[in-house]
Amino acid sequence: MSLNTLSGRFAVLTGIFVLLAELLILLPSLANYRLDFLESRLERAQIASLALLATDESLASDLESELLENAGVFNVVLRRNDVRQLVLSSPIPGPIAATYDLREQPFLTSASDALAQLMDPQNQVIRVIGAPVNQAGQLIEITMDTKQLRIEMIDYGLRLLFISAAFSILTALLLNVAAQRMLLVPIRRVISHMTAYANAPEDARSIITPSARLAELNEAEASLAAMQTTVTSALRQKARLAQLGQAVARISHDLRNILTTAQIFADRLETSEDPAVRRAAPKLVNSISRAVNLCETTLAFGKAEEPAPSLSRFNLSALVAEVTEAEALAADRVDGAGHIEFLTDVPPGLMIRADRDQLFRVLSNLSRNARQAIEATRKPGTIEIGAGEDEQEWFIRVGDTGPGLPKKARDFLFQPFSGGSRKGGTGLGLAIAADLVRNHGGRLELLRSDEDGTQFCLHLPRELAGVALRDGPISE
Q1: Which listed residue, 20, 51, 227, 337, has the most CB atoms within 10 A of its CB?
Q2: 13-20: which pairs have CB atoms within 8 A and are 24 or more residues apart?
Q3: Where is the Histidine kinase domain positioned along the sequence (predicted)?
């Protein structure tokens, strides 16, 4: 059992704490043992003195010495009827070092005296005063040395420590077994599940099922299961996104070739003799060019992020007109939908600096979402695009009179595949728009969404700090 393991440290700490408790018990035990020892000497001295009192005459010196030796004292003094009488006596080997009155001795004083006598290796003569047994007088007083007392106290203390150590080891072993069954086994189970999950995080079968009986461990297992479920779902979603990205890249590759061919034919429409065709040809060419550019950027999607914006100065009013014209044509092709009116409030001379194609995608996504929301109600509606500027930024507002976003869409507004509000939608439009605006150093925010409609606002900063530009010159 290693000290680097929980069970090893638990066993060591248990032994230390039990020994500490026994040491705290040892001092009071030694104090009680010393008190019992002194009281027994008083009792034996009283019995020896009664032998003399019973004869009513003096004893032979050798018999008196034998009585004192058996009692373990040097002399005995009795006080009876207020008369102090030296009953038994013998030569005292030295001066009296201390006097202890057992009749009035607090516990703390007794413990302190016991510790002092235990630590003092010198043999000293002490006087002990106590009450006689069975009220055979007023007090009894003896003198004795401390040698035998200290020897027996040391022997008693060692025996107590040995027993304490044995109980400590037994207690530590029992607690270790209990800890193994109650804590370590469930912890090892959690560790094994974590290891298995780390080897195959996509496999839902490796998610732990909470089964611990202890409330704390059960709560930990439940939290681990919730985390594993969330991570597994996220990994599966990322895997699906990766597969979708590969599929989109392959489709974009073939679509780019098709659109390139269509672009070649569209260029020839500009030489058509039909005036209507010649007017529509530039718009068709521009639309195909944007589609080709989008396919090319999709093929460069290896870093899973939009390309850096290529900034240029352009008239915002003209860009908004392109967006509204395209969405108006799309709205006219929907059968059964109510009429949708497009309103613009953009100053004609407002020039902004941004990536024109990316901003077209942002406004197109927002306008398309608004149009589809209104079309779903089968009622007339209005889509308004307004813009303005101040010293710090340009701002563009896109609002509609649709039914508003549901709560789920608002909670996951700019998360791909999560913030869709339309049945069958992917939720990518807002995520792409927010990402494109963020690449410009700006932000896209939802101003309101209720039964009266929805309004978004784009904020594009005038300063270029923090914006990574695409290689190449910036056209002003």
Answers
A1: 337
A2: 14/168, 14/171, 14/172, 14/175, 14/176, 15/168, 15/169, 15/171, 15/172, 18/164, 18/167, 18/168, 18/171, 18/172, 19/164, 19/165, 19/168
A3: 250-464
Q: How many CB atoms lie within 10 A of CB 395?
A: 15
Confirm if 372 and 426 have CB atoms less than 8 A apart.
no
Tell me which H or E stretch contains 286: helix 275-299
| 259: number of Cβ within 10 Å | 21
CATH class of 305-461: alpha beta
For 4, 68, 405, 420, 437, the CA distances from 413, given in Å and listed in that order, are: 49, 102, 9, 8, 15
pLDDT at 247: 66
| Residue 91 CB partners (closer than 8 Å, separation 6+) | 74
Token look-up 């013998």 returns 90
Mean pLDDT over all residues of the chain? 79
Beta-bridge partner residues of 142: 76, 128
Amino acid at 68: L
Check: CB of residue 208 under 8 Å from CB of residue 228: yes
Q: Which helix (H) or strand (E) holds 180?
A: none
Mean pLDDT across 42-57: 74
DSSP-derived 3-state class of residue 250: helix
Cα–Cα–Cα angle for 449, 451, 454, nearest 5°?
A: 30
β 381-389/340-345 pair status: parallel
Q: Which two three-digit tokens encode residue 107? A: 């516990």
pLDDT of 389 over the 90 cut: yes
H or E element at residue 93:
none
Pairing state between β 83-88 and 75-80 = antiparallel
pLDDT per position as a tens digit, 209-225 = 887 777 877 888 888 88
Q: Which of 200, 228, 224 is nearest to 212 (CA)?
A: 224
Tell me: the pLDDT tens digits for 114-169? Answer: 888 888 888 889 899 888 877 667 788 889 998 888 998 889 888 888 887 787 77
Handedness of CA 101, 107, 112, 117 (dihedral sign): positive
Q: Which residue, 458, 463, 316, is CA-closest to 396?
A: 458
What SS3 state is found at 380?
coil
Enter the tokens of residue 352: 């902004």
